Amino acid sequence: MSKVKVGLIGAGGIATIAHLPTLRAHQDRVEVAAIADLDADRVAQVAQEWDIPGRYTDVDALLEAEKPDLLIVCTPPSAHKEAVLKGLRAGAWVWCEKPPMLTLSDYDEVEAQEREGGPYASYVFQHRFGSGAATLKQQVAQGTLGRPMVALCNTLWYRPHAYYDVPWRGLWATEGGGPAMGHGIHQMDLLFEVLGDWTEVTAVADTLDRDIETEDVSFAIVKLESGAIASIVNSVLSPRETSYLRFDFQDATVEVEHLYGYDNSSWRWTPAPHKAEDTETVQSWAPQENIPSSHRQQLAELLDAMAEGTRPRASGHDGRRTLEFIAALYQSAETGQRVRREDLVKDGIYYTGMHDANYIYQKPQEG
């Protein structure tokens, strides 16, 4: 079989830390043909380091000259839409970093360019692709642990003031939101991947310490179609950083705690008292193989989908769900109202944006 020809848009840290090592790990299936970035010197540096022959400063030039099968988008969020649309229109499948788009209207415009059998646009939500998440999702589907009832989803990270010196960070127009959009999105996606769709949210968000336009912390209470209730916290103010999800079922509590990625050692299944003596059943709950959450595993599944001409996970409805939730979270926080999913419409402030410009988040206190 011929290798998938890959073009990379963006030569920043996420490209060199995550995507290029991932592509090298799949070098039996892919060929990295070209990279593009507005910074020609950065392109030359990365291309030299990773032995990439095609070097461009323009998306259009790369697409016209190289005609890649797969376009990987690693730009800042405000550039996602243009690059993804151009890739699809050129006939390339697209894999784009998070957040998928800045708005739901942008997401729907991109999805309208997809064609049955491909190309499709999918998005980086690597935490759903580890064996721990896959095992738990299967257990939920089979009812192995009983009915889901309570969930916690905490992204408690720390970003210093200097983090926001990068011009596009902390601004609604270029980042689309604060930690709910740019940090907690992975944990929230994993929550919904395991427990399914959400039905309503009540949220608060504010700016407590960072000098930015967007929020630096948010809290949400969420109801899910399964009947479970979840709390979601997203913060960039938390010195002891952790990513923590907890799922309480009738027969067990399941937890995963990590920072930027997990393997099986990050997960724990704790039986309810009435199940504690059934050791054979309890021992069967743990994953049988150890596949870490990673870009590598998600890319493997994406390449399989390309070969089969089928929609990959983390695309379409599957990729929109978390972005839709974030829009509802901001709507609830800014209006002070509960937002039901059934009431969302394809127009208005929180469809074409994530923020009402008339709503001002509080400024950090001095001292």
UniProtKB/TrEMBL annotation:
Keywords: NAD
Matches recorded under InterPro entries: Gfo/Idh/MocA-like_OxRdtase_N (IPR000683), Gfo/Idh/MocA_Oxidoreductase (IPR052515), GFO_IDH_MocA-like_dom (IPR055170), NAD(P)-bd_dom_sf (IPR036291)
Gene3D superfamilies, alphabetized: Dihydrodipicolinate Reductase, domain 2, NAD(P)-binding Rossmann-like Domain
Signal peptide limits: none
Pfam families in the cross-refs: GFO_IDH_MocA, GFO_IDH_MocA_C3
Keyword NAD part of the UniProt annotation: yes
Coiled-coil stretches: none
Domain of life: Bacteria
Ranges of residues in domain Gfo/Idh/MocA-like oxidoreductase N-terminal: 4-116
A GO molecular-function descriptor: nucleotide binding
GFO/IDH/MocA-like oxidoreductase domain residues: 134-242
Protein name: Gfo/Idh/MocA family oxidoreductase
Taxonomic source organism: Nesterenkonia alkaliphila
